[in-house]
Amino acid sequence: MARLVASLPVFAMLLAGCSGGGEAPVEDGSAAADPEDIIACAIGSASEFTRNCTVEREVQEGMLFLTIHHEDGGFRRLQVMEDGSGVTAADGADQALITVFDGEIEVSLGGDRYLLPATITGNASQ
Question: Per the domain annotation, does 57 fall within a domain?
Fold first, then answer.
């Protein structure tokens, strides 16, 4: 199996933890997601990806977690694996299935799909 290494933009600065600075204020005083924190997703029965999910990063006990927020208020938590194998579901019974593409991975989890940037290292046929 190919090893995955975190890359820009979603995985950038993940190990730096949550600085709280990933959001920029907008005119009405609310916060807007940083463009690097927005990913393409297909939620539920959606057949096409749209860039409308946001990613929140959090380091707990030295391990990196991503919380992907849906427009409808739902979310999924993923743990970034330290061995370069990608991500795994952090909560619930659903297993994260990963499909590797050039420059990104598709993570399928309980009918929801997410596109995350990734760099493939090593031999993809391993």
Answer: yes
28: in domain: no
CA 13 from centre of chain: 13
Residues 6+ away with beta carbon under 8 Å from 6:
12, 14, 80, 118, 119
pTM, two decimals, is 0.69
- Mean pLDDT to the nearest integer, 88-101: 90
Q: What token pair was written down for 2?
A: 């190919």
For tokens 């992907």, name the residue: 68
Q: How many structural domains are present in the chain?
A: 1
Query: CA-CA distances (angstroms) from residue 104 to 10, 31, 59?
Result: 10, 27, 22
CA angle at residue 44 from 42 to 48, to 5 degrees?
30
Give domain status of residue 126, yes or no: no
Q: Is residue 116 part of a domain?
A: yes
pLDDT in tens, 11-56: 333 322 333 344 444 444 445 556 668 999 999 999 999 999 999 9
